[in-house]
Design goal:
Number of strands: 11
Order of helices and strands: EHEHEHEHEHEHEHHEHEHEHEHHH
Strand order of the largest sheet: 2-1-3-4-5-6
Structural class: alpha/beta
Largest sheet: 6 strands, parallel
Number of helices: 14
Shape: globular
């Protein structure tokens, strides 16, 4: 048993604004509810050496002031290597996807350098977490001891509501066929071109489709309403870790059509109706048409418990305890 509240310094790349790392902030909020004393350190740059030198000084001051028992960095590449090089505290690294996966559109030099930093940082880690089994298999070292733990979904926020009510709030007609996809800030990796082609194929079968692309400007709190109003989520990404958009769609009961990427096959294994098909516009378009021609909600809300924020945070707390026990802090 932990005899006191463990103190954890969370390291997150970027700034504490916008949507890009909101799933990490949500995971941290969930585990803090279990008694963790947490503080977040935002690494403001991963590309400027002078800024990183200044960040190292700030990071050490933060450690001296906060006195954490362990450091948990939520990303590989420069972020993980930064932590590995600047502290001797017990270190947990969570690999999220693009820190180990190929990144279409990124230069080979930048991609290769980032992957090398991710891999060498793993040697320093007290514990490694990967958000999918596919990602764990990309580790050069310690893959046999790495835990697979996806980010949790907030089921209080992402939950089913009547489609008619959601559409009324958005001003969408009840007869419309609506497909949602996410391109984020990286359309090439998300294969927006393939998604667009698949929707055109679906239209040849079932008529006009309203195609909504989430490009990072939509407030996260607005997405549950969109998912409850839509007929289908389409995922065509070239690479993923554990795509949160799929887990959030599952929680809302929104059927998913996806390629086999990241942990999607595992997440959708008991979700009906949903389809995993080949990376082909005709296969994807045909699956979309099947969903749109027989619109119904999925049973996702019945099976989402294993990936809800509460379940994931409890498993994370167990990992923290294991690390602390090995370092005689409990």
């Amino acid at each position: 048993m932990v005899s006191y509240k463990p103190r954890v310094l969370f390291v997150i790349p970027g700034l504490p604004i916008g949507w890009r790392m909101i799933f990490i902030r949500n995971d941290i909020a969930a585990i803090e509810k279990l008694g963790i004393v947490g503080r977040s350190f935002y690494l403001v740059s991963r590309t400027s050496l002078p800024v990183l030198v200044n960040e190292a000084r700030r990071f050490r001051r933060e450690i001296k002031e906060f006195k954490p028992d362990l450091v948990h960095v939520h990303y590989g590449t420069v972020s993980a290597f930064f932590c590995a090089a600047t502290t001797r505290l017990p270190l947990i690294i969570t690999y999220q996807g693009s820190d180990l996966n190929p990144c279409p559109g990124m230069s080979k030099v930048r991609w290769g350098f980032g992957r090398i930093l991710s891999q060498f940082a793993a040697l320093r880690a007290s514990r490694i977490i990967c958000v999918s089994r596919e990602l764990r298999d990309r580790l050069w070292w310690k893959s046999h001891t790495a835990a697979v733990l996806p980010s949790g979904v907030d089921t209080a926020m992402f939950r089913p509501m009547p489609k008619s009510k959601a559409r009324a709030q958005l001003g969408w007609a009840s007869h419309e066929k609506i497909v949602v996809s996410s391109a984020g800030t990286d359309p090439p990796r998300k294969r927006l071109d393939l998604a667009q082609a698949a929707v055109r194929v679906a239209e040849s079968t079932c008529g006009k489709v309203r195609f909504i692309v989430l490009d990072g400007r939509t407030e996260h709190k607005e997405i549950p309403l969109l998912f409850n109003a839509a007929d289908c989520l389409l995922l065509t990404s070239e690479s993923e870790g554990s795509p949160n958009v799929v887990k959030e769609a599952i929680a809302c009961g929104l059927p998913v059509v996806s390629v086999d990427v990241g942990d999607v096959k595992e997440r959708l294994s008991n979700v009906q109706p949903s389809h995993i098909v080949g990376r082909d516009p005709y296969e994807l378009g045909g699956a979309i048409a099947r969903v749109l021609c027989d619109p119904q909600r999925s049973n996702g809300h019945e099976v989402v418990g294993e990936i809800c924020a509460e379940t994931i945070s409890k498993r994370m707390l167990t990992l923290y305890r294991q690390v602390l026990e090995r370092n005689a802090l409990v």
